[in-house]
């Protein structure tokens, strides 16, 4: 079927009109975009997700997911954790692990003009998120005398800016051949009447297809083949907006391996029943994450002995087996469920005028990485200390903001300095009364902090001072 018939059949004739009004390079650009979209599929999704609001079915047998606790429950488990940690270190040392950062999002809530990874995040030196991860990876490689390849997912909207940023900063000292960018898929934004929006007269309003797009994008880009060629078995997956995450977690990698897990997750104990974290649940013997917005109050609030039943929240930190991705994407397809997000999408109207809406006007369809969990034959969950791994930078100020992230980075580094024997002046509420920043290039974990200050003795920071170390 040709373009004209396809667009007519799928009720998107305004795009055909836009195409017919163009010539030369503009015409070719829009034509190429139109050809990349699966219009029959889009029509189905419009019926299912745009013209009606899908209701998430909550399975009747939903139960809380089991997890490995932060503190081992007995001596036997403590021994198992030690074994798993050693196994993790062995995997890292032997080059069997890679890091994967999803950085294709639009970061609309942060309101920052540029890829989120280029946002200055550290409290003293204002290092960017990408620099922070790069230095941290460099330190892990040095510590374990290994190479960890870093895969970074971008979207068409920020791919060039991201690559240029790395090039302009000499890859922050990492070997360029160990950094691999790949671009995720996209979906057109759709208005509430079911029409695909145009962002310019020669362009459809395209939005990245969600972090669930990672798996297929890894295959389509050739990165999955590259991982296999490099001998990578396991991927440490994390989000670009969380600089507190350990870029490599030996205990988690070791447990993943010893338990023959295909996809593993970090869990945090939720601070309250309605904290905005996905809930780890089990249904039909499979692990599944139910979004906080879909969780019925009655289940979210249920307690046993004063503790939330569904205590396990997801900070979006995973270990994923390369073989699992290979299996899931075999045949070049992966049908993860779609999720509807109502967004303000700037577009041009039928008169060619730019419209910047004040209220949501369109639906963005996204897949989520955690929807791969029920497809795994084996999964494990490991509890972690939120203070050591989760400081999301979603907003400019307030909850989950750049501000709160900086405070958490400072608090973690202050704790590490205390472990190294340096007194930290504290306020009445216990928070540091100074700003400190340890270089991730020198300090990856507590052990590093102790060793660093042993060879670089430092005085206790002054109250209200601001100091970077390393
Ligand atoms: P968020 O869900 O916070 O979305 O992404 P976002 O696009 O960054 O921010 P908002 O909602 O517009 O404010 C969580 C992580 O998943 C990545 C993001 O880059 C971030 O690391 N992500 C999200 C992608 O890589 N691709 C996507 O399509 C969506």
Bound molecules: uridine 5'-triphosphate
Question: What is the overall number of helices?
Answer: 15
Poorly predicted runs: none
Largest sheet properties: 11 strands, mixed
| N-to-C span | 62 Å
- Determine the mean pLDDT: 96
Strand content: 15-25%
Structural class: alpha+beta
Proportion of residues in helical segments:
25-40%
Keywords summarizing the entry:
470 residues, alpha+beta, 11-stranded mixed beta sheet, 3-stranded antiparallel beta sheet, 24 strands, 20% strand, binds uridine 5'-triphosphate
Structure notes:
The chain is of the alpha+beta class and 470 residues long. Helix content is 33%, strand content 20%. It has helices at residues 3-9, 13-20, 24-36, 39-50, 75-93, 129-143, 159-168, 213-220, 223-230, 250-258, 297-301, 322-328, 386-389, 402-419, 446-455, and strands at 63-64, 97-102, 149-154, 179-183, 186-188, 190-191, 198-200, 203-204, 206-208, 234-239, 263-269, 278-283, 286-290, 303-304, 307-308, 312-314, 318-321, 339-343, 347-348, 354-355, 362-366, 379-383, 435-438, 466-469. The strands form seven sheets. Strands 1, 2, 3, 4, 10, 11, 12, 13, 16, 17 and 22 form an eleven-stranded mixed beta sheet that branches. It has a three-stranded antiparallel beta sheet with strand order 6-21-18, with helices on one face. A two-stranded antiparallel ribbon has the order 5-9. The N and C termini lie far apart (62 Å). Uridine 5'-triphosphate binds at residues 102-109, 116, 153, 155, 184, 208-211, 239-241, 366, 394.
């Amino acid at each position: 079927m040709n373009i004209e018939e396809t667009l007519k059949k799928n009720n998107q004739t305004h795009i055909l009109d836009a195409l017919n009004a163009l010539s030369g390079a503009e015409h070719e650009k829009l034509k190429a975009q139109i050809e990349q979209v699966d219009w029959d599929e889009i029509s189905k999704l419009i019926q299912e997700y745009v013209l009606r609001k899908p209701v998430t079915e909550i399975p009747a047998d939903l139960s809380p997911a089991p997890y490995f606790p932060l503190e081992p429950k007995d001596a036997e488990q403590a021994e198992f954790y030690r074994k798993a940690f050693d196994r993790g270190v062995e995997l890292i040392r032997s080059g069997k692990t890679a890091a994967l950062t999803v950085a294709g999002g639009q970061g609309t809530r942060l309101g920052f003009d540029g890829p989120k990874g280029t946002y200055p995040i550290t409290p003293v030196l204002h290092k960017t998120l990408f620099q922070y991860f790069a230095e941290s990876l460099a330190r892990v490689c040095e510590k374990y005398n290994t190479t960890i390849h870093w895969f970074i997912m971008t979207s068409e909207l920020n791919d060039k800016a991201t690559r240029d940023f790395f090039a302009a900063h000499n890859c922050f000292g990492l070997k360029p051949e160990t950094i691999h960018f790949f671009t995720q898929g996209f979906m057109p934004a759709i208005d509430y009447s079911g029409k695909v929006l145009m962002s310019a007269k020669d362009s459809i309003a395209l939005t990245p297809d969600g972090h669930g797009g990672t798996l297929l994008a890894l295959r389509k880009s050739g990165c999955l083949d590259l991982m296999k060629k490099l001998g990578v078995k396991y991927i440490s997956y994390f989000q670009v907006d969380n600089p507190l995450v350990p870029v490599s977690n030996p205990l988690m990698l070791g447990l993943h391996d010893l338990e023959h897990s295909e996809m593993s997750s970090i869990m945090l104990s939720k601070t309250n029943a309605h904290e905005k974290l996905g809930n780890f649940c089990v249904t039909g013997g499979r692990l599944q994450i139910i979004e906080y917005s879909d969780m019925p109050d009655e289940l979210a609030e249920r307690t046993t002995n004063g503790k939330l039943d569904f205590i396990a929240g997801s900070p979006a930190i995973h270990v994923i087996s390369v073989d699992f991705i290979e299996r899931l994407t075999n045949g070049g397809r992966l049908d993860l469920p779609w999720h509807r997000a109502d967004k303000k999408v700037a577009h041009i109207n039928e008169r060619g005028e730019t419209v910047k809406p004040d209220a949501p006007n369109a639906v963005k369809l996204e897949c989520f990485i955690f929807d791969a969990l029920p497809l795994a034959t084996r999964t494990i969950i490991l509890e972690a200390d939120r203070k050591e791994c989760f400081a999301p930078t979603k907003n400019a100020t307030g909850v989950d903001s750049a501000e709160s992230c900086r405070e958490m980075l400072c608090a973690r580094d202050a704790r590490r300095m205390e472990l190294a024997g340096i007194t930290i002046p504290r306020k009445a509420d216990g928070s540091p009364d100074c700003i400190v920043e340890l270089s991730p290039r020198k300090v990856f974990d507590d052990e590093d902090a102790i060793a660093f200050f042993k060879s670089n003795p430092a005085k206790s920071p002054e109250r209200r001072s601001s100091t970077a170390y390393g």
